[in-house]
Amino acid sequence: MNYDYQEHEMFQENLPPYVRYLLKASSYPHEVGEISLIQTHISSVILAGGYVYKWKKPVNFGFLDFSSLEKRKYCCERELVLNRRLCPEIYLGLVSINVSNGEYALNGPGEVVEYGIQMARMPEERMMSRVIQAEGLSKKDLDAVVAALIPFYDNAETGETIQEFGRSASVAINVLENFEQTEGFVGKGGLSRPVFERIKAYACTVLAERQLFDDRVAAGRIRDCHGDLYSANICLNGTVRIFDCIEFNDRFRYSDVAADIAFLAMDLDFHGLSDLSSYFVARFIAESGDKGLLKMLNFYKCYRAYVRGKIGLFTANDPAVDRETVDSSLNQSARYFQLADRYAAIQEG
User: Which of 104, 121, 138 is the last residue of a domain?
Assistant: First the structure.
C-alpha cells in the first residue's frame, strides 16, 4: 500500500515506533520521494527512493522464529548470503535502527533496537506480477527465467543431508504442518471443512507413495533451492533477477527442484495463464532433462497453492495490517484454496 503520513495517522498507532520513524523522509540520508509501506505476515517492507528496506516482525510461527533481536539479525545475514546466489547486486547489506538519547536513527549511534536489510530498488513496472497484470508476460520472458534457473540448480548445494529432505517422511513434515496450522481457520478465507479435508486426503495419498520421492532423490533433484519462486519475487528488467528466497528455515529450501518449478507454474495458473504455465514447465524440462519432474508437478502445485492460502490467513490475522490488506488477503486466500482443491481433484494417469 502507498503510505500517506497524515492520512494514515490513526493507523500508525498499530505500527512499531521504528517503522513510524522510517515513514518520515527526514529519516534517510538520501532522497526518498514518496514512501511506501508494504506489510506481510512476517515483514515490514519500506520503499524509499532508490532503495528498499526490509524489516522482520518479532513473530514466532513455529516454522519461523523472529522472536528475538539476535534471531532477526541472524536471518537478515542469511537472507543476504542466500539471495546473493541469484542477484548479488540487489542485496546491498545489513542496516540497523539505533537509539541514542531517546532518538531513532538509521545506522546511527547508540543501542541497536532493530536489524534489517537494504536492497537496491528494482523497477516496479518490470516485476513479473506487474507484467502479468498488464497482460505483457511472454514466452520470451519465461525463456529468460528458465535460463537463469538452470545454472542456479546445477550449482546449488546438495549432498546426503540435503537429499533426505526430498524423501516422503521429510516432505510430509512441511505438508502436514500446513494443515495443523490452518485447521483453526476453517470457515475463514474460503477454507471450508470439505475443502480442507479433500486437500489433506489428496496430500496424504501422494505422500504414501514413497517410491515417487525416493526416485527423485536417486535422480539428484534435491537441492538447496529458492523456496519462494513465484511472480512477486521475479524482476524482468533485462537481466532476470530472482530474489527473496526463504532464509528463515532450511527445510523450506532443501527440496525437490520440482517444488520450486511447481510454485511458479501454480502462480501462472492462479493468474489465468495455464498455457504459459505449461510452456514454462515444458521449457524447463527440455533444458534440464528432468522428465521425472512431471510426476511430482501436481502434488507440489497443490502444496504451493495451499501455502499461499495459509499466508493470506496469517496476514489477515495480523493486527498491524489495515482493513484493505485484511480484505485483500482473505480474498486471495479463498482463490488459492480453490486452486489447491482443483489440483487435489486431478487424477494422475
Answer: 121
In percent, the amount of the chain with pLDDT more than 90 equals 89
What b/e string do you get for 227-258 counting C-beta neighbours within 10 Å, with b at 16 or more? bbbbbebbbbeeebbbbbbbbbbbbbbbbbbb
C-alpha cell at 44: 515490514
**Looking at the structure, do residues 221 and 103 belong to the same domain, yes or no?**
no
267 vs 344: CA distance, rounded Å = 16
Q: State the residue range of the domain holding 78.
A: 11-121
Residue 223, C-beta contacts closer than 8 angstroms, at least 6 positions apart:
153, 156, 157, 158, 162, 254, 255, 257
Q: Identify the CATH number of the domain in which residue 75 sits.
A: 3.30.200
Q: Which residue has the cell 545454472?
A: 151
Same domain, 315 and 222: yes
Stated length of the chain:
349
Last residue of a domain, one of 87, 121, 155: 121
Torsion angle of the four alpha carbons 199, 202, 207, 213, in this order, in degrees rounded to the nearest 10: -100
- 99 and 161 housed in the same domain: no
Q: What average pLDDT does range 189-212 have in this prediction? A: 97
Residue 348 has pLDDT above 80, yes or no: no
Residue 314 lies in a domain: yes
pLDDT at 1: 32
With beta carbons less than 8 A apart as the criterion, state whether 314 and 39 touch.
Answer: no
DSSP state at residue 126: G
Number of domain units in the chain: 2
Report d(CA 5, CA 189) in Å as an integer. 30
- Asked whether the predicted pLDDT for residue 5 surpasses 80, the reply is no
Strand 111-120 vs strand 51-56: parallel, antiparallel, or unpaired? Answer: antiparallel
